Structures are given as structure tokens and as C-alpha cells.
Amino acid sequence: MTANPRSDTIAVFGAGVMGCGITALALGRGVDVVLVDVSDEVLRAAEAEIAQQLRHGRFMGAFPGSRATGTLTTTLSGEAAADATAVIEAITEDSSLKARMLAEVSGVVAPGTTLITNTSGIPIDELAKSVRRPAELAGVHFMNPAYLIEMVEVIRGPRTAEDTVAAVFSLLGRLGKKAVVVHDAPGFVTSRLLHPMINEAARIVAEGTASVESVDRLMQGCLGHPTGPLRTADLIGLDNLADALRLLAERTGNPAFAPCDLLREKVRHGDLGRKTGRGFYDYEGVLS
């Protein structure tokens, strides 16, 4: 497989939480990005969010001070990805939607273009069935916020080619990331461990054993968790977390992974975490 020589731009599909974070990461590292979504309104909001993340990333020292910021192009047309050297799909964690998007993208880009799905737990080989060249597809599980968390999980599907993995590592190196390769499985490693822990933390709160704050303080102080599982859940997005847990329960056959009642209740009420101003914690007046 040879790299596409026509461009040094990556295309990101999906201007939601993860799409914005990945775009900010790339721009801050001097990489040009074409950001694709289906809504002008979403893209306008994404531009403001990405600008804020770039400011925050610079303040936190996440981006090289000597490197010029990459150029951002937003568009409603997937055809704009045709000349990209790599494509990162970052739409919602829905296997059918991801499969449909990847099928469309693989029909647009040239052979040799690295295809990356940003998924927290959907098996890569399941998605590879939809693309024209399965050997060119790999998974990368970026953590939120993508521009601050240094480590990523790279998932190699059964049909992922060695040169695709090499291309992914080359791109991640440009983005300043460290990576660990894992084999394909539902939930991979990080989600298989983290999401059930968050689910159990929510059950503990629902049962009245401890408050949200107490659970997080204990996990931070006793077990070294950087933020606590429930504050982490708010950052992930409780809707995203509930979807990922449902998928994990379905694909492993383990009903214990299904989202607990408290988590489902918060999603029903629209309390999805930081992005809506309220989740396990209240962020009203805190978010800019």
C-alpha cells in the first residue's frame, strides 16, 4: 500500500464531541483537516468549539508552540475527502450508521487511503464488511478530550493489513500520540474495563451506598483514578456510554454490561453530561 500523494490533509467525518476533539488535535499539530457533517448548523457550532479547544490546548501546552496551526475546511460533501491521505470516521457509536458511512467513504477515496474508525467498542471486522478494501481499515479509540490525552488504543481487525497499521502509527506520531495495538473484540480493552466500572459506580449511587462525589473521591484517593468514574462518564456523554454498554452486553452475551436504571433515566431526561450542562454533576454556569 502506498500513501496517497495528492494531499497532506486528513478528513474527519462527524462534527460531534469526538470529531471536534480529533480535529482540534490535528489542527494544533499543524495538520490540515476537512471536517464533514450533514448539518450547516452543526458545523458552525463545531468551528466555535474547535477554536475553544485550540485555545485550551495551547494554554495546557498540548501543541508545539513553533508549529503553525493547520487549516480547517468544513463541508457537507463527503466528496471533499477524495484527496485526503487518511480518513477518520467519528460519528455516533451506532454500528449501522458507521457501516453506512464507511461504505460511502470507501467509495470516494483512492486505493491506499487509510480508513480509521473512531469507535469505543464496535468490532472492526464487523465494520470492515461494509468497505471496499477491508485491509485498509483499522480502529483507533481516541479518548476525550482527544487533544489532551496522550495514549490511544489501536485496534487491528483480522483483515487489517500490516501497512495500514504502519500508516496509522505514522499519522498518530504526527499527532503526538502514543499507541498500543490490541486485537479485535467487543469493547477492546479500555471500554471493556472502564464502561462496566462506570456502570457499577452508578448502581452504587442508585442504591444509596454513597453519593456521586464520594464514589469519585474514593476512586481518586484510593485507586488513583484521575477524575473519578462518574465525572469521566459526564465527559464521555451519558448517551454515548449507555449505547456502548448496550453494544457490549449484546456482543458479549453478558447482561451485566447493560446500562443500569440510573444511567438510562438520566439519558431519558436529557442529562447527558458536560455537553448538556448536567449529568452526574451540574455544569450550569461552568461551561463557556
From TrEMBL:
<comment type="similarity">
    <text>Belongs to the 3-hydroxyacyl-CoA dehydrogenase family.</text>
</comment>
<dbReference type="Pfam" id="PF02737">
    <property type="entry name" value="3HCDH_N"/>
</dbReference>
<dbReference type="InterPro" id="IPR036291">
    <property type="entry name" value="NAD(P)-bd_dom_sf"/>
</dbReference>
<dbReference type="InterPro" id="IPR006176">
    <property type="entry name" value="3-OHacyl-CoA_DH_NAD-bd"/>
</dbReference>
<keyword id="KW-0560">Oxidoreductase</keyword>
<dbReference type="Pfam" id="PF00725">
    <property type="entry name" value="3HCDH"/>
</dbReference>
<feature type="domain" description="3-hydroxyacyl-CoA dehydrogenase C-terminal">
    <location>
        <begin position="187"/>
        <end position="283"/>
    </location>
</feature>
<dbReference type="InterPro" id="IPR008927">
    <property type="entry name" value="6-PGluconate_DH-like_C_sf"/>
</dbReference>
<dbReference type="InterPro" id="IPR022694">
    <property type="entry name" value="3-OHacyl-CoA_DH"/>
</dbReference>
<feature type="domain" description="3-hydroxyacyl-CoA dehydrogenase NAD binding">
    <location>
        <begin position="9"/>
        <end position="184"/>
    </location>
</feature>
<comment type="pathway">
    <text>Lipid metabolism; butanoate metabolism.</text>
</comment>
<dbReference type="InterPro" id="IPR006108">
    <property type="entry name" value="3HC_DH_C"/>
</dbReference>
<dbReference type="InterPro" id="IPR013328">
    <property type="entry name" value="6PGD_dom2"/>
</dbReference>
<protein>
    <submittedName>
        <fullName>3-hydroxybutyryl-CoA dehydrogenase</fullName>
    </submittedName>
</protein>
